[in-house]
Amino acid sequence: MIKICSKLTNKKWFFPAIYLLFLLISFIPPITEKGFALQDTQDVIINLLMVAITPYENWGIIFHILTLLILLLLITRPGIAGRLIAGYMGANLILISLAQSFGQTEKYGLVIHTGGLIAFFALGVIWLWVAIRGKIEVSPKKITWHQYLLLPLALLAFWSPYQVIGTVVSPNFDPLLLLTSPDYGLTFCFTTPLFLYLLILIYRNVDKFAFRVTAFNGLLYALFNFSHWFNPDTRWMGVLHLPLLIISLYALIQSKT
Fold it and tell me: How far apart are CA 92 and CA 196, in angstroms?
């Protein structure tokens, strides 16, 4: 089975087919308690994301601390850090798929983000499989200057410095959010940039299939959130999606080498 999968990933058509599959998944309409017009799909998802992780906001500090511990192991015990990173990513993505995809909204009632639920859960399973198979290793290597330039973007996602007052999203550079922001660890768009950044640093020893599909989905959902730039009230949220956009694009380009 493993040999068959390895041969498939070497086919020219394989990754375009996988990208198309995840693209189609992303267009699966959400399930709502109250009806909505198809053109309002983005509004449905935005309303969901405003409330989905509210019950779990106090969990933010857990994901920040766990990530810092993994970074410590990455430096001090690289031999065991590879599988740990993959396993943590898998578990976290599955948790995100469950936490971020369900919510009780005022406008649409109960909402299930079907596309996100399927995609993020699938990515989580993929990374757990990488951890089980051990197809990821950490070995010391020189960090390039352009990879250093990505570091502030990864930190911005980790920080997630914003606040919502009414319908307006504005900056909130409270240093405490570096440890308590609920978006990191509970949302795909703010968690994935740091995951991808770590994978970029150890790219040569990472399962290419898992790396590519994660980067593709990161780029896909960054483009979906580009709509924030056209609304003055949510433009800062558009800025905060730049880490996902840029790091995902970099990872996809790197995966070609």
Answer: 13
Indicate the domain borders of the chain. 14-254
The pLDDT of residue 4: 46
Decide if 107 contacts 205 (C-beta within 8 A): no
Give the closest residue to 156 by CA, choosing from 199, 200, 194: 194
233 pLDDT more than 80: yes
In this structure, what are the phi and psi dihedrals at residue 233, rounded to the nearest 5 degrees? -70, -25
What rounded mean pLDDT belongs to the chain? Answer: 92
DSSP letter for 227, please.
G
What's the burial of 71, exposed, middle or buried (CB within 10 Å: 0-12/13-18/19+)?
Answer: middle
SS3 187: coil
Q: Which pLDDT score is estimated for 3?
A: 47
Nearby residues of 146 by Cβ (< 8 Å), 6 or more positions away = 250
Q: What is the pTM of this model?
A: 0.94
Helix or strand (DSSP H, E) at 63:
helix 60-76
- CA 226-228-91 angle, to 5 degrees, is 70
